[in-house]
Amino acid sequence: MAFRFKPAEPIGQGFHRIAAEQVERALTVLASGEDRGKAVHEARKTLKRLRALLRLVRPAIGETVYQAENARLRDAGRLLSDARDQAVMLETIAAVSAEAASHELAALKALQKITAAAAFSAHGDAAGTAGRAIELIARAGEAIATCDISEPGFGAVGPGLRRSFAKGRTAMARARREPSDEAIHEWRKTVQVHWRHMRLLGEAWPEYTGLRAELARDLSQVLGDDHDLAVLAARAQAAAGHGLSARQAGIIVQLARSRQDALRLQAERLGGLLFADTARDLARRMARYWRIAERRSLADAATKVGRDTHGAPARGASQGTGEGRRVLPRSDVRSDGSAPARQLAQRVRSEARKSGEATRPVATRKTAVSGKTRSVRPKSGRAGDRL
Protein backbone atom coordinates (compact mmCIF):
# COMPACT_ATOMS: atom_id res chain seq x y z
CA MET A 1 0.00 0.00 0.00
CA ALA A 2 1.62 3.23 -1.19
CA PHE A 3 1.22 6.10 1.26
CA ARG A 4 1.68 8.71 -1.45
CA PHE A 5 -0.18 10.66 -4.07
CA LYS A 6 0.46 9.85 -7.73
CA PRO A 7 0.98 12.69 -10.21
CA ALA A 8 -1.01 10.75 -12.80
CA GLU A 9 -4.21 10.63 -10.73
CA PRO A 10 -6.46 13.47 -9.50
CA ILE A 11 -5.74 14.50 -5.91
CA GLY A 12 -9.29 13.64 -4.83
CA GLN A 13 -8.96 10.12 -6.20
CA GLY A 14 -5.61 9.70 -4.50
CA PHE A 15 -7.03 10.99 -1.22
CA HIS A 16 -9.80 8.40 -1.21
CA ARG A 17 -7.41 5.62 -2.20
CA ILE A 18 -4.90 6.43 0.55
CA ALA A 19 -7.56 6.98 3.22
CA ALA A 20 -9.32 3.69 2.39
CA GLU A 21 -6.01 1.79 2.56
CA GLN A 22 -5.11 3.25 5.95
CA VAL A 23 -8.57 2.73 7.45
CA GLU A 24 -8.57 -0.88 6.29
CA ARG A 25 -5.09 -1.39 7.74
CA ALA A 26 -6.08 0.01 11.14
CA LEU A 27 -9.26 -2.08 11.34
CA THR A 28 -7.46 -5.24 10.22
CA VAL A 29 -4.63 -5.09 12.76
CA LEU A 30 -6.97 -4.26 15.64
CA ALA A 31 -9.37 -7.08 14.78
CA SER A 32 -6.62 -9.63 14.16
CA GLY A 33 -5.29 -12.15 16.63
CA GLU A 34 -1.83 -10.58 16.50
CA ASP A 35 0.11 -9.70 19.60
CA ARG A 36 -1.97 -6.99 21.26
CA GLY A 37 0.96 -4.66 21.85
CA LYS A 38 2.10 -4.91 18.24
CA ALA A 39 -1.43 -4.42 16.93
CA VAL A 40 -1.94 -1.28 19.02
CA HIS A 41 1.41 0.10 17.91
CA GLU A 42 0.62 -0.45 14.22
CA ALA A 43 -2.90 0.95 14.57
CA ARG A 44 -1.64 4.13 16.22
CA LYS A 45 0.88 4.70 13.43
CA THR A 46 -1.90 4.27 10.90
CA LEU A 47 -4.08 6.79 12.72
CA LYS A 48 -1.25 9.31 12.65
CA ARG A 49 -0.94 8.83 8.90
CA LEU A 50 -4.66 9.39 8.47
CA ARG A 51 -4.64 12.56 10.53
CA ALA A 52 -1.64 13.89 8.57
CA LEU A 53 -3.54 13.16 5.35
CA LEU A 54 -6.55 15.10 6.63
CA ARG A 55 -4.35 18.06 7.55
CA LEU A 56 -2.90 18.13 4.05
CA VAL A 57 -6.34 18.43 2.42
CA ARG A 58 -7.93 20.41 5.26
CA PRO A 59 -8.78 23.52 3.21
CA ALA A 60 -10.10 21.36 0.36
CA ILE A 61 -12.52 19.26 2.44
CA GLY A 62 -13.69 22.13 4.65
CA GLU A 63 -13.26 22.89 8.32
CA THR A 64 -16.45 21.16 9.46
CA VAL A 65 -15.51 17.81 7.95
CA TYR A 66 -11.89 18.12 9.05
CA GLN A 67 -12.75 18.88 12.68
CA ALA A 68 -15.29 16.06 12.95
CA GLU A 69 -13.16 13.30 11.44
CA ASN A 70 -9.90 14.44 12.98
CA ALA A 71 -11.60 14.34 16.38
CA ARG A 72 -12.85 10.78 15.78
CA LEU A 73 -9.38 9.58 14.81
CA ARG A 74 -7.79 11.46 17.71
CA ASP A 75 -10.18 9.87 20.19
CA ALA A 76 -9.51 6.43 18.74
CA GLY A 77 -5.79 6.99 19.24
CA ARG A 78 -6.31 8.05 22.83
CA LEU A 79 -8.27 4.89 23.55
CA LEU A 80 -5.24 2.90 22.42
CA SER A 81 -2.61 5.07 24.09
CA ASP A 82 -2.57 3.72 27.65
CA ALA A 83 -1.20 0.26 26.92
CA ARG A 84 1.35 1.63 24.46
CA ASP A 85 2.49 4.37 26.85
CA GLN A 86 3.16 1.82 29.58
CA ALA A 87 5.22 -0.30 27.19
CA VAL A 88 7.26 2.73 26.09
CA MET A 89 7.89 3.66 29.70
CA LEU A 90 9.32 0.21 30.43
CA GLU A 91 11.56 0.53 27.36
CA THR A 92 12.76 3.96 28.52
CA ILE A 93 13.55 2.70 32.02
CA ALA A 94 15.52 -0.20 30.55
CA ALA A 95 17.49 2.13 28.25
CA VAL A 96 18.38 4.58 31.02
CA SER A 97 19.25 1.69 33.35
CA ALA A 98 21.90 0.47 30.90
CA GLU A 99 24.05 3.53 31.75
CA ALA A 100 23.00 4.06 35.38
CA ALA A 101 25.26 3.88 38.43
CA SER A 102 24.41 1.40 41.19
CA HIS A 103 22.54 3.91 43.40
CA GLU A 104 20.61 5.15 40.34
CA LEU A 105 19.80 1.62 39.27
CA ALA A 106 18.01 0.89 42.53
CA ALA A 107 15.68 3.86 41.99
CA LEU A 108 14.98 2.82 38.40
CA LYS A 109 14.19 -0.75 39.40
CA ALA A 110 11.68 0.50 41.95
CA LEU A 111 9.93 2.59 39.29
CA GLN A 112 10.08 -0.32 36.84
CA LYS A 113 8.15 -2.49 39.28
CA ILE A 114 5.42 0.14 39.64
CA THR A 115 5.19 0.62 35.85
CA ALA A 116 5.04 -3.12 35.15
CA ALA A 117 1.98 -3.41 37.39
CA ALA A 118 0.29 -0.54 35.55
CA ALA A 119 1.16 -2.12 32.19
CA PHE A 120 -0.44 -5.41 33.23
CA SER A 121 -3.64 -3.59 34.18
CA ALA A 122 -3.69 -1.66 30.89
CA HIS A 123 -3.20 -4.86 28.91
CA GLY A 124 -6.25 -6.39 30.57
CA ASP A 125 -8.43 -3.50 29.35
CA ALA A 126 -6.99 -3.55 25.82
CA ALA A 127 -9.70 -5.72 24.22
CA GLY A 128 -12.53 -3.42 25.29
CA THR A 129 -10.76 -0.22 24.26
CA ALA A 130 -9.78 -1.75 20.90
CA GLY A 131 -13.45 -2.47 20.19
CA ARG A 132 -14.43 1.13 20.84
CA ALA A 133 -11.52 2.36 18.73
CA ILE A 134 -12.60 0.13 15.85
CA GLU A 135 -16.06 1.68 15.92
CA LEU A 136 -14.66 5.23 15.78
CA ILE A 137 -12.24 4.40 12.96
CA ALA A 138 -14.97 2.73 10.91
CA ARG A 139 -17.27 5.72 11.28
CA ALA A 140 -14.46 8.10 10.28
CA GLY A 141 -13.69 5.94 7.25
CA GLU A 142 -17.30 6.05 6.08
CA ALA A 143 -17.43 9.84 6.42
CA ILE A 144 -14.09 10.38 4.69
CA ALA A 145 -15.23 8.22 1.77
CA THR A 146 -17.98 10.78 1.02
CA CYS A 147 -15.66 13.81 1.07
CA ASP A 148 -15.58 15.72 -2.20
CA ILE A 149 -12.35 17.29 -3.48
CA SER A 150 -13.04 19.06 -6.75
CA GLU A 151 -9.56 20.58 -7.26
CA PRO A 152 -7.64 18.01 -9.33
CA GLY A 153 -4.11 19.33 -8.89
CA PHE A 154 -1.70 20.62 -6.26
CA GLY A 155 -4.12 23.37 -5.30
CA ALA A 156 -5.97 20.78 -3.21
CA VAL A 157 -2.95 20.13 -0.99
CA GLY A 158 -0.75 23.24 -1.28
CA PRO A 159 -2.61 25.38 1.29
CA GLY A 160 -2.65 22.50 3.79
CA LEU A 161 1.09 21.92 3.35
CA ARG A 162 1.79 25.61 3.86
CA ARG A 163 -0.42 25.86 6.93
CA SER A 164 1.09 22.78 8.61
CA PHE A 165 4.68 23.81 7.88
CA ALA A 166 4.03 27.31 9.21
CA LYS A 167 2.68 25.74 12.39
CA GLY A 168 5.90 23.73 12.68
CA ARG A 169 8.07 26.84 12.36
CA THR A 170 5.99 28.57 15.03
CA ALA A 171 6.26 25.55 17.34
CA MET A 172 10.04 25.45 16.89
CA ALA A 173 10.34 29.15 17.71
CA ARG A 174 8.30 28.65 20.87
CA ALA A 175 10.40 25.64 21.89
CA ARG A 176 13.55 27.75 21.51
CA ARG A 177 12.12 30.61 23.58
CA GLU A 178 10.71 28.43 26.34
CA PRO A 179 12.01 24.85 26.10
CA SER A 180 9.37 23.28 28.32
CA ASP A 181 8.37 19.64 28.01
CA GLU A 182 5.01 20.72 26.61
CA ALA A 183 6.54 23.03 23.99
CA ILE A 184 8.97 20.34 22.84
CA HIS A 185 6.17 17.80 22.56
CA GLU A 186 4.00 20.16 20.50
CA TRP A 187 6.93 20.82 18.18
CA ARG A 188 7.45 17.09 17.76
CA LYS A 189 3.85 16.61 16.62
CA THR A 190 4.27 19.18 13.84
CA VAL A 191 7.53 17.53 12.75
CA GLN A 192 5.77 14.18 12.46
CA VAL A 193 3.07 15.78 10.30
CA HIS A 194 5.67 17.28 7.95
CA TRP A 195 7.50 13.96 7.75
CA ARG A 196 4.32 12.28 6.55
CA HIS A 197 3.49 15.13 4.19
CA MET A 198 6.84 14.63 2.48
CA ARG A 199 6.00 10.95 2.10
CA LEU A 200 2.58 11.76 0.68
CA LEU A 201 4.09 14.17 -1.86
CA GLY A 202 7.20 12.10 -2.45
CA GLU A 203 6.58 11.70 -6.19
CA ALA A 204 7.04 15.45 -6.72
CA TRP A 205 10.81 14.94 -6.62
CA PRO A 206 11.77 11.71 -4.80
CA GLU A 207 15.34 12.67 -3.93
CA TYR A 208 14.40 16.07 -2.53
CA THR A 209 11.32 14.92 -0.60
CA GLY A 210 13.19 11.81 0.55
CA LEU A 211 15.93 13.95 2.05
CA ARG A 212 13.37 16.10 3.87
CA ALA A 213 11.52 13.00 5.10
CA GLU A 214 14.75 11.54 6.51
CA LEU A 215 15.58 14.78 8.25
CA ALA A 216 12.08 15.06 9.72
CA ARG A 217 12.20 11.43 10.84
CA ASP A 218 15.53 11.95 12.58
CA LEU A 219 14.29 15.09 14.31
CA SER A 220 11.09 13.30 15.34
CA GLN A 221 13.14 10.52 16.92
CA VAL A 222 15.26 12.96 18.92
CA LEU A 223 12.18 14.86 20.12
CA GLY A 224 10.47 11.53 20.84
CA ASP A 225 13.35 10.47 23.08
CA ASP A 226 13.09 13.82 24.85
CA HIS A 227 9.36 13.26 25.40
CA ASP A 228 9.95 9.76 26.78
CA LEU A 229 12.41 11.20 29.30
CA ALA A 230 9.94 13.94 30.24
CA VAL A 231 7.29 11.28 30.91
CA LEU A 232 9.84 9.30 32.93
CA ALA A 233 10.58 12.30 35.14
CA ALA A 234 6.86 13.04 35.60
CA ARG A 235 6.15 9.38 36.43
CA ALA A 236 8.89 9.38 39.06
CA GLN A 237 7.55 12.53 40.69
CA ALA A 238 4.01 11.11 40.74
CA ALA A 239 5.25 7.86 42.31
CA ALA A 240 7.09 9.61 45.15
CA GLY A 241 5.47 8.38 48.35
CA HIS A 242 3.64 5.63 46.45
CA GLY A 243 6.28 2.95 46.14
CA LEU A 244 9.12 5.35 45.41
CA SER A 245 10.95 7.50 47.96
CA ALA A 246 11.43 11.22 47.42
CA ARG A 247 15.17 10.63 47.13
CA GLN A 248 14.72 7.97 44.47
CA ALA A 249 12.34 10.21 42.54
CA GLY A 250 14.91 13.01 42.61
CA ILE A 251 17.61 10.70 41.25
CA ILE A 252 15.44 9.67 38.31
CA VAL A 253 14.41 13.25 37.51
CA GLN A 254 18.06 14.34 37.47
CA LEU A 255 18.98 11.45 35.16
CA ALA A 256 16.20 12.37 32.74
CA ARG A 257 16.95 16.09 32.67
CA SER A 258 20.66 15.63 32.00
CA ARG A 259 19.90 13.52 28.93
CA GLN A 260 17.23 15.94 27.73
CA ASP A 261 19.77 18.78 27.65
CA ALA A 262 21.91 16.92 25.10
CA LEU A 263 18.93 15.88 23.01
CA ARG A 264 17.60 19.44 22.79
CA LEU A 265 20.89 20.75 21.45
CA GLN A 266 20.76 18.08 18.77
CA ALA A 267 17.13 18.90 17.99
CA GLU A 268 17.88 22.59 17.55
CA ARG A 269 20.52 21.87 14.90
CA LEU A 270 18.30 19.45 12.99
CA GLY A 271 15.31 21.78 13.26
CA GLY A 272 17.31 24.67 11.86
CA LEU A 273 17.89 22.65 8.68
CA LEU A 274 14.37 21.28 8.33
CA PHE A 275 12.62 24.62 8.89
CA ALA A 276 15.10 26.84 7.05
CA ASP A 277 12.54 27.73 4.36
CA THR A 278 9.49 29.87 4.98
CA ALA A 279 6.16 28.10 4.61
CA ARG A 280 5.38 30.21 1.54
CA ASP A 281 8.66 29.32 -0.19
CA LEU A 282 8.33 25.61 0.55
CA ALA A 283 4.74 25.46 -0.71
CA ARG A 284 5.64 27.29 -3.93
CA ARG A 285 8.64 25.05 -4.54
CA MET A 286 6.62 21.89 -4.00
CA ALA A 287 3.91 23.20 -6.32
CA ARG A 288 6.49 23.67 -9.10
CA TYR A 289 7.96 20.22 -8.54
CA TRP A 290 4.49 18.65 -8.58
CA ARG A 291 3.60 20.29 -11.89
CA ILE A 292 6.84 18.98 -13.37
CA ALA A 293 6.00 15.51 -12.07
CA GLU A 294 2.52 15.73 -13.62
CA ARG A 295 3.97 16.62 -17.01
CA ARG A 296 6.48 13.82 -16.72
CA SER A 297 3.69 11.35 -15.94
CA LEU A 298 1.73 12.46 -18.98
CA ALA A 299 4.81 12.07 -21.16
CA ASP A 300 5.54 8.62 -19.72
CA ALA A 301 1.94 7.57 -20.37
CA ALA A 302 2.13 8.80 -23.96
CA THR A 303 5.38 6.90 -24.46
CA LYS A 304 3.80 3.72 -23.14
CA VAL A 305 0.82 4.11 -25.45
CA GLY A 306 3.16 4.58 -28.39
CA ARG A 307 5.14 1.49 -27.53
CA ASP A 308 2.04 -0.60 -27.00
CA THR A 309 0.61 0.57 -30.32
CA HIS A 310 3.66 0.64 -32.59
CA GLY A 311 6.33 -1.22 -30.69
CA ALA A 312 8.39 1.98 -30.45
CA PRO A 313 8.19 5.25 -28.49
CA ALA A 314 5.53 7.66 -29.66
CA ARG A 315 7.09 10.49 -31.61
CA GLY A 316 5.68 13.29 -29.50
CA ALA A 317 6.27 11.51 -26.21
CA SER A 318 9.92 10.53 -26.55
CA GLN A 319 11.22 13.54 -28.46
CA GLY A 320 9.09 16.40 -27.19
CA THR A 321 5.65 17.72 -26.40
CA GLY A 322 3.59 20.49 -27.90
CA GLU A 323 6.02 22.60 -29.96
CA GLY A 324 8.71 19.95 -29.90
CA ARG A 325 10.06 20.59 -26.36
CA ARG A 326 12.07 17.66 -25.02
CA VAL A 327 10.65 16.03 -21.89
CA LEU A 328 13.46 16.04 -19.35
CA PRO A 329 14.28 12.69 -17.76
CA ARG A 330 13.79 12.28 -14.04
CA SER A 331 17.40 13.00 -13.10
CA ASP A 332 17.56 16.19 -15.21
CA VAL A 333 14.46 17.94 -13.88
CA ARG A 334 15.16 21.47 -12.71
CA SER A 335 12.97 24.25 -11.44
CA ASP A 336 13.96 27.95 -11.51
CA GLY A 337 17.61 27.11 -12.06
CA SER A 338 18.00 25.00 -8.90
CA ALA A 339 20.60 22.23 -8.82
CA PRO A 340 19.71 18.60 -9.50
CA ALA A 341 18.51 16.63 -6.50
CA ARG A 342 21.83 14.90 -5.82
CA GLN A 343 23.63 18.23 -5.78
CA LEU A 344 20.93 19.65 -3.52
CA ALA A 345 21.43 16.83 -1.05
CA GLN A 346 25.21 17.36 -1.11
CA ARG A 347 24.78 21.07 -0.57
CA VAL A 348 22.47 20.61 2.42
CA ARG A 349 24.90 18.15 3.98
CA SER A 350 27.82 20.49 3.25
CA GLU A 351 26.04 23.38 4.92
CA ALA A 352 25.26 21.13 7.85
CA ARG A 353 28.93 20.13 8.22
CA LYS A 354 29.93 23.78 8.31
CA SER A 355 27.64 24.25 11.29
CA GLY A 356 28.92 21.05 12.89
CA GLU A 357 25.96 18.83 12.07
CA ALA A 358 25.89 16.94 8.77
CA THR A 359 22.13 16.24 8.70
CA ARG A 360 23.19 14.60 11.85
CA PRO A 361 22.98 10.83 11.97
CA VAL A 362 20.80 10.39 15.00
CA ALA A 363 21.55 7.79 17.64
CA THR A 364 19.09 4.97 17.85
CA ARG A 365 16.23 5.23 20.29
CA LYS A 366 18.02 3.22 22.94
CA THR A 367 21.36 4.99 22.68
CA ALA A 368 19.79 8.45 22.61
CA VAL A 369 17.85 7.82 25.79
CA SER A 370 20.66 6.04 27.55
CA GLY A 371 23.12 8.83 26.88
CA LYS A 372 25.60 7.06 24.56
CA THR A 373 27.17 9.26 21.92
CA ARG A 374 27.49 6.64 19.16
CA SER A 375 25.61 7.74 16.05
CA VAL A 376 24.44 5.92 12.97
CA ARG A 377 24.12 7.50 9.55
CA PRO A 378 20.51 7.26 8.29
CA LYS A 379 19.92 4.96 5.36
CA SER A 380 18.75 6.45 2.12
CA GLY A 381 15.24 5.86 0.87
CA ARG A 382 11.81 6.62 2.14
CA ALA A 383 11.47 6.92 5.86
CA GLY A 384 9.40 4.49 7.84
CA ASP A 385 7.20 5.17 10.83
CA ARG A 386 7.91 5.57 14.49
CA LEU A 387 5.64 6.63 17.29
Tell me the layout of helices and strands:
Layout (H helix, E strand, L loop, with lengths): L10 H21 L4 H21 L1 H4 L1 H35 L4 H23 L1 H20 L12 H20 L3 H20 L5 H34 L6 H29 L4 H32 L4 H5 L21 H14 L10 H6 L17
Give the distance, in angstroms, between the N- and C-terminal Cα atoms.
19 Å
Shape: globular
Helicity level: over 70%
Report the C-alpha radius of gyration, rounded: 23 Å
Structural class: mainly alpha
- Beta-strand segment tally: 0
Average pLDDT, rounded to a whole number, is 83
Pick out the low-confidence regions: 314-341, 355-368, 370-387
- Provide the β-strand percentage band: under 5%
Number of helices: 14
What is the N-to-C succession of helices and strands?
HHHHHHHHHHHHHH
Major sheet: none
How does this model look, in words?
This protein has 387 residues and is mainly alpha-helical. The protein is 73% helix and 0% strand. It is built from 14 helices and no strands. Residues 314-341, 355-368 and 370-387 have low confidence and may be disordered.
Question: Which features would summarize this protein structure in a list?
Answer:
73% helix; 387 residues; mainly alpha; globular
In a few lines, what is going on in this structure?
This protein has 387 residues and is mostly helical. The protein has helices at 11-31, 36-56, 58-61, 63-97, 102-124, 126-145, 158-177, 181-200, 206-239, 246-274, 279-310, 315-319, 341-354, 365-370.
